[in-house]
Write a structure and sequence with these properties.
The chain has 83 residues and is of the alpha+beta class. It has a single domain, classed as Transcriptional Co-activator pc4, Chain A (Roll), CATH 2.30.31. The protein contains one helix and five strands. The protein has a five-stranded antiparallel beta sheet with strand order 1-2-3-4-5. A hairpin with a 1-residue loop joins strand 1 and strand 2. It is flat, with a radius of gyration of 14 Å.
């Protein structure tokens, strides 16, 4: 499912969520989500950060990280070694 939302917070930015991969954890009203998405019309990346819906119904986020498919595979291999 692809959809586009625009959010304002100090700077204008746009993002398009191409796939909701899942929720890693929750902290009060915030959910850490892994998503496959585009920021400002850029390249498709995996994105890991906290998100929530604020009192006005807008989706807001905290700082996070974006990873290419190759970077995500490397992270997955590293985590698999830790088991």
């Amino acid at each position: 499912m692809a959809f586009k939302k625009t959010t304002e917070k100090n700077n204008d930015f746009t993002y398009e969520v191409l796939e909701e991969c899942g929720t890693v954890c929750t902290d009060k009203d915030w959910e850490m989500k892994l998503r496959y998405m585009k920021w400002n019309g850029g390249a498709e990346k995996y994105d890991l950060r906290y998100w929530k819906v604020d009192d006005t119904g807008k989706e807001v986020c905290r700082k996070g990280i974006t990873l290419s498919g190759k970077e995500l595979e490397g992270l997955q291999a590293l985590l698999n070694k830790m088991n």
